[in-house]
Specification:
The structure is a single chain. With 283 residues, the protein is α/β, with parallel strands linked by helices. It is built from ten helices and twelve strands. Helices cover 31% and strands 19% of the residues.
C-alpha cells in the first residue's frame, strides 16, 4: 500500500517536513507494511521553501542583509541552476519576533530587496518568493528601500523605510535604484487573495495577530492607500497584493514581480501529480 503524506506546516508549531514524519510514524504502527512517500507542501506561507527544497534537492545558501531591527543577519535561500527560492518569513516571520517586540509598523523588510539584488548578481533568472507569515505591515516600502528607493518627509529628511514612516512620506528618490533586468522573472507565492487596503486588506485582516492595535487600523490603512494612490494606484485593485503586510504590493510595484498561486506553484515544482498517480491514499 502506497501512502503519500503531503501536509502543510502547522503555524508556529511544526514545519511541514516534521508533520509528515509524525504522520508516518503513526501510520507505520497501524500499517507496518505500507510504503510512505513524504511530500511536504506549502501555499506560500512559512515552510513553503523548505518543502520544495526537500523534494527537489535544492542547495541552501545565505546572504548578508539588513535584519528586522536594523542589524545585519545571514538570510537563507535555496537555489538550483538559475532558479532561487526564499521566504520573507525567514527574515521577518512572526515566529521570529518575540511577543513583546511585535509592532508591525517598526519591523524592517529592507533585507528582502537586498536579497533580490544579491540573487540577480549571482545570475538567478527565476526567483520565487513566499510572502506568508510575516510580522510586518509596511505596505511594501521596505522592499523598495532594499532596491535603492529613498523616502523623505516634508523637511527633506530621509525616513527609515518602515510602516510608521508611511504617515510622513512626501517625496521619493529613485537616484540610487537598481532596476530589475528584463530577463529576470520574480514570482510571489501568495497564500491569500486579500487586496492591499480596505476592510479585507492587509491591515484589517492580519494587523491584530502581528501586534497592531485595532484602534490604529483605519489610520494605517489610509496611510498605505494614500501612498499607493501617488505611486501606483492600479495596485490597490490587485487581488493578493495585501499578502505579507503589503510586501506583495511592494514587490509588484518596485520589483516587477507577479503574484502566482502558492500551492499550485509548489505542487508543480515538486511534480506532485505524477508522484501520486499510483498512490492508494493521499494525506
Amino acid at each position: 500500500m502506497k501512502i503519500v503524506i503531503a501536509p502543510d506546516s502547522f503555524k508556529e508549531s511544526l514545519p511541514a517536513s516534521e508533520v509528515a514524519k509524525a504522520i508516518k510514524r503513526g501510520l507505520k504502527k497501524a500499517l507496518p507494511e505500507s510504503k510512505c512517500l513524504l511530500l511536504p507542501v506549502g501555499d506560500g506561507g512559512e515552510g513553503t521553501v523548505d518543502a520544495i527544497k526537500n523534494s527537489l534537492g535544492l542547495v541552501e545558501k545565505t546572504a548578508l542583509v539588513t535584519g528586522s531591527f536594523g542589524d545585519e543577519i545571514q538570510m537563507t535561500y535555496v537555489q538550483k541552476g538559475k532558479l532561487a527560492l526564499f521566504e520573507v518569513a525567514d527574515l521577518v516571520g512572526l515566529a521570529k519576533i518575540p511577543v513583546e517586540k511585535r509592532n508591525p509598523l517598526k519591523i524592517q523588510t529592507k533585507g528582502i530587496g537586498q536579497l533580490i539584488l544579491h540573487l540577480i548578481e549571482q545570475g538567478m533568472k527565476e526567483i520565487y518568493i513566499g510572502v506568508g507569515g510575516t510580522s510586518t505591515n509596511d505596505g511594501g516600502i521596505g522592499i523598495a528601500s532594499g532596491l535603492g528607493y529613498q523616502f523623505y518627509d516634508k523637511n527633506g529628511d530621509e525616513l527609515l523605510a518602515i510602516g510608521q514612516s508611511l504617515f510622513e512620506i512626501t517625496d521619493i528618490s529613485k537616484e540610487k535604484v537598481i532596476s530589475i533586468p528584463s530577463g529576470v522573472r520574480i514570482k510571489i507565492l501568495a497564500d491569500v487573495t486579500n487586496p492591499l487596503c480596505g476592510t479585507h486588506g492587509a491591515t484589517y485582516t492580519f494587523g491584530k495577530q502581528k501586534g497592531l492595535e485595532p484602534a490604529k487600523f483605519q489610520d494605517v490603512d489610509i496611510a498605505i492607500e494614500n501612498f499607493y494612490h501617488k505611486v501606483a494606484p492600479e495596485i490597490l485593485k490587485l487581488e493578493g497584493s495585501g499578502a505579507g503586510g503589503g510586501i506583495a504590493a511592494g514587490l509588484c510595484v518596485f520589483a516587477d514581480a507577479e503574484i502566482v498561486s502558492g500551492i499550485q506553484t509548489c505542487l508543480d515544482l515538486i511534480n506532485f501529480d505524477q508522484k501520486i498517480t499510483d498512490a492508494d491514499l493521499v494525506i
